[in-house]
# Entry
Amino acid sequence: MRRSVILWIGLAIACVALSAAAAFETRATKLQAIKTVGIVSAIGEEMSLTQAGLTGLGNTGQSVSISAWGLDELIVQQTTKLLSGRFRVQAVSYRRAAFAAIRDSAVAPVNLLRSDPFKELVRSDVAPQGLDAYIVITRARSKLGNGRNVEGVGLAQYRTLLADYGLIHALYEVRVIEGKSFDVIEKRAAAPLDNTGTLRLAGPSGPVDATFDGPASNERLRAAIGDLITRSLPVTLGDMHLIDGQ
# Structure
């Protein structure tokens, strides 16, 4: 009986491994077939301001407009530069607000069985149609220290009885959506750049001074967020095998 159970477990593991290998091969084949791509970015129109911790800070999240920062333009520019060695990148038009309005991340495990919400949006809102694939970059979500959710671009202030901490974040996820069937070929959330700080998020983030006066107009904050994006994009696109040599 024990031997039969072991054989059954071994067979199940082998089936899972073969299924994963087949899925990887299919994904790799689809990626190899892509020649032309369009890039959609919708993460940078607003910044969240989050206060959390143990000393009774306000629990109501706030946000400020940072549309003047041009973060989505920066993302499209940097992504185009990174992908142009392998793909022919074509400019596309889209309603950024429509993509930004989708707050529920399809990368999260709870949503894996749902239809990806961005598929139909690419079909209906992006022009021109007919490219081999569309690279869609949108906000991702993570939990801050005490369990509060933060997403996209933001500044988090976390206070304990002994100290204050500040953390900036640029959380995003990347999808490769096939241009004919609109199936999601690949999707991945950007990984942390450095997880050695006191506060940690499951995405690009970094420590800053906990106090800022007028964050939307602070050039130092803008530069720091831009740096997170610029440093994390090559890593994320490389992990997705979208950059030659990765």
The helical segments are 2-32, 71-83, 96-100, 118-125, 219-239.
